[in-house]
Structures are given as C-alpha cells and as structure tokens.
C-alpha cells in the first residue's frame, strides 16, 4: 500500500506541487514548510529578514526542493512583487500558506496605535494582499488552488488579563472570518480556503507569553497536557494541501491539544 508522499501516489501525496510559505524562516512557517517538503512539494519560503531566511532555506533544502525569496508583504507592492517572483519560479502555484505574522503585548488601555497598526497590517491585511495577488495571478486563471491561512485559538475567543494581546487576538479573529468569506467567494474557482488555529507552540513569537504564564501552566490548560511540537502542524497542513482535503473549504482546524474544546473557544 502506498503511503503519503510516496512515488505511487495516495490521498496525501503532493509530489511536484508548488507551495509558497510566508513567514517561512522560523516557527510555525518553517514547521509547515518542512512538512510540505517531506511530502514531496517544491517550496518557496519568504520573510522580511533576508539573512535569517536564507539560513532557514538552506536547512530546508536538505529535505527537498526549497528556495528563499525575501519580501515585505505588509504593502501592496511587496505582496505583488512576491507573487510575481513566485510566478517566475513556478509557472503554477498550487499551495499558498499565509503564515507571516506579528504580536504585541500591552494592556488594551495603553496599547500603542502604531503597534496596533503593525499587527493588523501583517496579520490580516497582508493575508488579503497575498491571497488577492496569488489568486489573480495563478489560481483563479487555472480554476484550482489551496490557500491555508494561519489563525490562532486566540482568534476563537477573548482572553483574560494574564495574556494582553488585544491586537493579536482581534487580527486572528479577522483571519477566521476572512477564511470563511473567501472560501465562499472562491469556491466557484475551484480554490479551497481553510485555516489552522494553533494553540501554544514554543517559538520566538510566543516566548513572552511562555515566560509570563509558564509552559507547565499553559500545557495544563490542555486535555492532552502538552504544548505543540515541531510535527503537530504538518499533518493538518497536508490535509488541507492534498487531495485528502478536496471537499474541505471554509474550515478552521484548531491544533491545540484540546484547549478550545474545554475553555469556551
């Protein structure tokens, strides 16, 4: 029997498919890029910091066909440039993973407006810009494509005073509804749009919360009594990217050890 990613095919086989992962230099983006490569995809990773990105791409290239394209997708020009550069490398882009994001910790009453704008621009505006650019350039003309947005369980409900990131939670809530709305519009083009909503995964972005609240405390909130690790998002992303997910669109999959099942998310 052939397995996922095998040369003879299978529901989860994405051999030869082309994927773009934004925010792919570290954290969740790098995890997902690694999983797509392991399943046979050709992957471009992108982020703003060229040095860090090139280093990550070199590590990922040990697994499969991976290269880096630096870019700042917080502006329409930057998103269009990345979409065009990707089109030059891949005549067809099958999978777009919108992962680039930022966070900012501050109580709501003192949250700086410039920080609010930064988080909103990168976490939701850039997802709109990239989806629009890639959709018009590559997916809509072919009547096919998979878009995977990275939301968060922080976008499924509010949070208490111990975790003060009102802009982040608001932006991820917007990602959830953007995913559902775009899926409704672009289904007629054969484009599946879904989102992953990770719980807490140790990363540079979550380092502050982990230090403030504590890894053991956060893990204790989950029925599975653990935080996410480097493998926990790979299979979920592969479901959305492959034939196994061809009849799934507009859905939000929480990968959180069960936190959202018991805490009212």
Describe it.
The chain has a single domain (18-259), classed as Rossmann fold (3-Layer(aba) Sandwich). 43% of the residues lie in helices and 13% in strands. The chain contains 9 helices and 7 strands. The protein has helices at 27-38, 50-60, 76-89, 113-142, 166-186, 207-213, 215-220, 234-241, 259-262, and strands at 18-22, 42-46, 66-68, 95-98, 145-150, 191-198, 252-255. It has a 7-stranded parallel sheet, sandwiched between helices. Helix 4 (113-142) links the parallel strand 4 (95-98) and strand 5 (145-150). Helix 3 (76-89) packs parallel to helix 4 and helix 4 (113-142) packs parallel to helix 5 (166-186). It starts with 17 loop residues before the first strand and ends with a helix. Mean pLDDT is 90; it is low at 1-8.
Strand line-up across the major sheet: 3-2-1-4-5-6-7
Q: What is the overall shape? A: globular
CATH topology label: Rossmann fold
- Per CATH, the architecture is 3-Layer(aba) Sandwich
Task: Output the structural class.
Answer: alpha/beta
So what's the CATH class?
A: Alpha Beta
Rg over CA atoms, rounded to whole Å, is 18 Å
Order of helices and strands: EHEHEHEHEHEHHHEH
Give the integer mean of the pLDDT values: 90
The major sheet is characterized as:
7 strands, parallel
Question: Helix content range of the residues, please?
Answer: 40-55%
Strand content: 5-15%
């Amino acid at each position: 029997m052939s397995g996922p990613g095998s040369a003879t095919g299978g529901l989860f086989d994405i051999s030869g498919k082309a994927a773009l992962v934004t925010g792919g230099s570290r954290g969740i983006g790098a995890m997902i890029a690694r999983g797509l490569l392991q399943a046979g995809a050709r992957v471009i990773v992108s982020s703003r910091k060229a040095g860090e990105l090139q280093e990550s791409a070199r590590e990922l290239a040990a697994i499969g066909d991976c290269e880096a394209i630096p870019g700042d997708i917080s502006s329409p020009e930057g998103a269009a440039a990345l979409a065009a550069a990707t089109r030059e490398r891949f005549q067809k882009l099958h999978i777009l993973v919108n992962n680039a994001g930022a966070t900012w910790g501050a109580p709501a009453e003192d949250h700086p407006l410039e920080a609010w704008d930064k988080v909103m621009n990168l976490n939701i505006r850039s997802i709109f810009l990239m989806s629009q650019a890639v959709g018009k350039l590559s997916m809509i003309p072919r009547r096919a494509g998979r878009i995977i947005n990275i939301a968060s369980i922080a976008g499924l409900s509010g949070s208490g005073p111990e975790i003060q990131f009102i802009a982040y939670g608001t932006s991820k809530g917007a990602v959830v509804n953007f995913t559902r709305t775009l899926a409704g519009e672009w289904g007629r083009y054969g484009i599946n749009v879904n989102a992953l909503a990770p719980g807490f995964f140790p990363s540079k972005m979550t380092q502050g919360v982990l230090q403030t609240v504590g890894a053991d405390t956060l893990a204790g909130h989950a029925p599975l009594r653990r935080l996410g690790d480097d493998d926990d998002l790979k299979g979920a992303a592969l479901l959305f990217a492959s034939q196994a997910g061809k009849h799934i669109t507009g859905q939000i999959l929480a990968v959180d050890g069960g936190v959202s099942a018991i805490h009212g998310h």
